[in-house]
Amino acid sequence: MDFKFDVSAMGYSDKESMMKVINAYMRNCSGEEVMYEGTGMNMNTGYVYIALENGVTIASNFGQRVEYIVTDYVTGEEYFLNSYSSAVRKQEQLNRE
Question: Mind listing the pLDDT tens digit for each residue in 51-64?
Answer without folding.
Answer: 999 999 999 999 99
